[in-house]
């Protein structure tokens, strides 16, 4: 009954904004990392097959792609861990705020949590409550780690700024592939453009993907159209779009986390709880 009562109280005091943000964060990171990894692999194959005949021309590009793929592994692990911590922090601070306004009453199972978060008194030391006190001590220890909303606000703010740069960078390959796809559309429907088909090209060197001495470095006319019709190009293009959407979803989740954490911290600060509670 104690466990059921505790779960019921937790559901009443659940931070719905943090729950939505956590789900959006996990979805966005999974989409960005998974699709981004495969899109980089597809880009490597396209460069090797169509845009350069010399391995030394794209050796540096391959090293950069592999480095980004390893960064993606670390990014996925970090965000899943940090998202879980932010969700736990949301439970802590939201419960404390609702308790201040009288919307959330703690149970004997959560006295250790409330003592850490709101500065309340600990449970009595009777023998029959030994099990409850053990749970309280666990919650109290967790509270020492999560009871610093000001630090979470600062870290999340810095992470949001960094991820804003990632979001901007994820738009670059979408822009490059979209330009290539637009050129292919002009080749497929020559009546829509005044330029000759042979002069319509996709030059990987122009975007810094390959050095200027790479050969051929660019593909033009009907050869470019045949590349655009391949499954590799279509799949890579759509994977980059999906990765861009994932980056946008992650950015929205971080902004939601930051707003919710800032609000909770401001309320607790104004109510005299201090920066550590």
UniProtKB/TrEMBL annotation:
Originating species: Cavia porcellus (Guinea pig)
Membrane topology: Multi-pass membrane protein
GO BP: axon development; central nervous system myelination
Domain of life, source organism: Eukaryota
Protein family according to the UniProt entry: Belongs to the myelin proteolipid protein family.
Major localization listed first in the record, in broad terms: membrane
The protein's name in its UniProt record: Myelin proteolipid protein
UniProt-annotated location(s): Cell membrane; Myelin membrane
GO molecular function, one term: structural constituent of myelin sheath
Short name of any one Pfam family annotated for the protein: Myelin_PLP
Family matches, as PANTHER family: MYELIN PROTEOLIPID, MYELIN PROTEOLIPID PROTEIN
Keywords: Cell membrane, Disulfide bond, Lipoprotein, Membrane, Palmitate, Transmembrane, Transmembrane helix
Cellular component GO terms, alphabetical: myelin sheath; plasma membrane
Stated role: This is the major myelin protein from the central nervous system. It plays an important role in the formation or maintenance of the multilamellar structure of myelin.
